[in-house]
Amino acid sequence: AQIQFADQKQEFNKRPSKIGRRSLSRSISQSSTDSYSSAASYTDSSDDETSPRDKQQKNSKGSSDFCVKNIKQAEFGRREIEIAEQEMPALMALRKRAQGEKPLAGAKIVGCTHITAQTAVLMETLGALGAQCRWAACNIYSTLNEVAAALAESGFPVFAWKGESEDDFWWCIDRCVNVEGWQPNMILDDGGDLTHWIYKKYPNMFKKIKGIVEESVTGVHRLGRATVAAPESLEVSKARDGSNWAGFTWAGSNWAFLFPSLKRTTDMMFGGKQVVVCGYGEVGKGCCAALKAMGSIVYVTEIDPICALQACMDGFRLVKLNEVIRQVDIVITCTGRVPALDPKGPRQQDGVSDLLALCMPCLQLGWRSSSDWCAPLQASLRTPELTWERVRSQVDHVIWPDGKRIVLLAEGRLLNLSCSTVPTFVLSITATTQALALIELYNAPEGRYKQDVYLLPKKMDEYVASLHLPTFDAHLTELTDEQAKYLGLNKNGPFKPNYYR
């Protein structure tokens, strides 16, 4: 069905009255104060060093079923959510359509993703569709504290704050799951940690899970290994196996976040800088294209001969990392969980550049805590002979005795959501896909999906794309009967086979 978008009209007074000007002045002043106070959520320092786990906080309705940094930041977080809504048209359209029907009525969804304004729009859309939600963060650095506060103020049980410890990370997940009188029947995960936590610690609860929607490639692989013991579930892999997600997020959005992330953290000029990108998958392709556009000299490392050939044909020199580590200015790893850089390498390379920036951009998984590959890397760098200096939030200098140093960004973890953002419109695509997948899972008749991992149906992928086209005032061409017959396609799609990415 075609979704009708309601016209939105706003009227503004041409000249505010004296009272209006005074109110406006107070509003601006208050906005500045709110903005300043919320800045603590982006930094490691704060006037209040008390752990959120030790605080007794309640929202305006008297509920304390949440754990965030500071519930008083809710108003500022609400403004961020409202901005995100403007760039997520498909979710807002789904929310409008659900005014009369509640396709997720009775669904109890437990989620573990990045807690950002875009996630908030998704959660509130799921709530409008009739679902009950409990949420934790999949990354210890990507949570926006003010957004988490806004969700808690709206009544969503959210357990997340920026800078969690590893113990905090698992504690928050457990608080989402282990609630008396609440049995989740759906999972929305990023990286598989929530899924495996329930599977291992609450096996009886896990048996009642009707379906799982997974965000990342790593999570897909982990679920694939566990399907023998898994319940009947639909696994929707958008991260790579949905063409929308692969085309726009991994490759496209790297253009948007790589430059501001590196620029904010290093203040480097990239023209003429030598950069090695480890891995030429969707993430690596986007990073290389962005760096090339900025005038950088780009090298690529790759293990896959097909991706390697693609890199060569795109004009990049294929090298081994040890061939260029002594001369490059920046190392960007795009290889998922396993490190491309030997943890002992930077310390043993006497010829390393005077100033080497090391970072991981948009990943194929959600980084957790010190249990990931960055743990051995950090361990190799946290030795008595090396000095660590904090430059600014998410930026550290690791200094050798001879004065040479590495600029380590986000402690080797996720760069895009720790030091920058992903474009909201791109995240609208994945969030809409997740919502539709949850609806499909929850309403699927028994027996439709077997005990297996499923890719995103291409028809659903195309529907998500169609929901975003009105934003561009785009008009699709319709196949004639003769064309459809010749191509062997239905005039209404799907137009691509399921293996197309």
Automatic annotation (TrEMBL):
Keywords: NAD, One-carbon metabolism. PROSITE patterns: ADOHCYASE_1, ADOHCYASE_2. Binds 1 NAD(+) per subunit. SMART domains: AdoHcyase, AdoHcyase_NAD. InterPro entries: Adenosylhomocyst_ase-like_sf (IPR042172), Adenosylhomocysteinase-like (IPR000043), Ado_hCys_hydrolase_NAD-bd (IPR015878), NAD(P)-bd_dom_sf (IPR036291), S-Ado-L-homoCys_hydrolase_CS (IPR020082). Residues 258-422 form the S-adenosyl-L-homocysteine hydrolase NAD binding domain. Transmembrane segments: none annotated. Residues 15-24 have a biased composition (Basic residues). CDD domains: SAHH (cd00401). Residues 1-64 are annotated as: Disordered. The keyword Repeat does not apply. The keyword Kinase does not apply. It comes from the Eukaryota. Residues 25-44 have a biased composition (Low complexity). One of its GO terms (cellular component) is cytosol. NAD(+) binds at residues 281-286, 302, 416. Its cofactor is NAD(+). GO terms for biological process: one-carbon metabolic process; S-adenosylmethionine cycle. Belongs to the adenosylhomocysteinase family. This is SAHH3 Adenosylhomocysteinase. It comes from Furnarius figulus.
